[in-house]
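ok trying again, last paste got cut off:
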Amino acid sequence: MSDIYLGNPNLKKANTTQEFTEENIIEFVRCKNDPVYFTEKYIKIVNVDEGLVGFEMYPFQRKLIRNFHENRFNICKMPRQTGKSTTVVSYLLHYAIFNDNVNIGILQTKRLLLEISSADYNWRMRTCRVGCSKAS
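nice, full thing came through this time. structure:
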């Protein structure tokens, strides 16, 4: 019986045993402790011109993620179209992966745009794709 989930060789079925090397463990700990590193190394976004690319953040986006990570409450007064949503979603994904029993919902005027539950994640590191699309 195959350990592949839904025919995708990058995904394993639930409860599949995985052995980690010392390098894997070091990388996991680094990602857990540094959400900026995790975002820049593992988050992929969809660029209109280039397709799927790594998330190369501007300095204000790095600062935003650090502030989210270090402070429980944040107020951001920022203009439109600066990548806030993508930055916030990448941090929330980090938060859901590396913290137990997390439920996250992002709301927009009467609609649920995104819901992340740590219970649905199989707790392994992989390249994550984050994209913004209109909810139907």
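cool. The CA atoms of residues 68 and 74 lie 7 Å apart. The mean pLDDT is 79.
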